[in-house]
């Protein structure tokens, strides 16, 4: 299941984080990072999926 979440995180980082942790602090951090730059959003999403 993590492979699917990682693929989703590459395509749409906030969705990958949402599927892993829900609407918490990590989700909003990822939305902000994705708006500031797509690559930081991807890196953060993959980190969240690997950590949780």
Automatic annotation (TrEMBL):
The chain crosses the membrane at residues 6-24, 31-50. Belongs to the UPF0057 (PMP3) family. The keyword Signal does not apply. PANTHER family: HYDROPHOBIC PROTEIN RCI2 LOW TEMPERATURE AND SALT RESPONSIVE PROTEIN LTI6 -RELATED (PTHR21659), UPF0057 MEMBRANE PROTEIN ZK632.10-RELATED (PTHR21659:SF42). It is found in: Membrane. Signal peptide: none annotated. Keywords: Membrane, Transmembrane, Transmembrane helix. This is Stress induced hydrophobic peptide. GO terms for cellular component: membrane. It comes from Rhodospirillum rubrum (strain ATCC 11170 / ATH 1.1.1 / DSM 467 / LMG 4362 / NCIMB 8255 / S1). PROSITE patterns: UPF0057.
């Amino acid at each position: 299941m993590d492979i699917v979440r990682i693929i989703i995180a590459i395509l749409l980082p906030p969705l990958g984080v949402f599927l892993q942790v829900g609407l918490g602090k990590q989700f909003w951090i990822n939305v902000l990072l994705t708006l500031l730059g797509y690559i930081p959003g991807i890196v953060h999403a993959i980190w969240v999926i690997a950590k949780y």
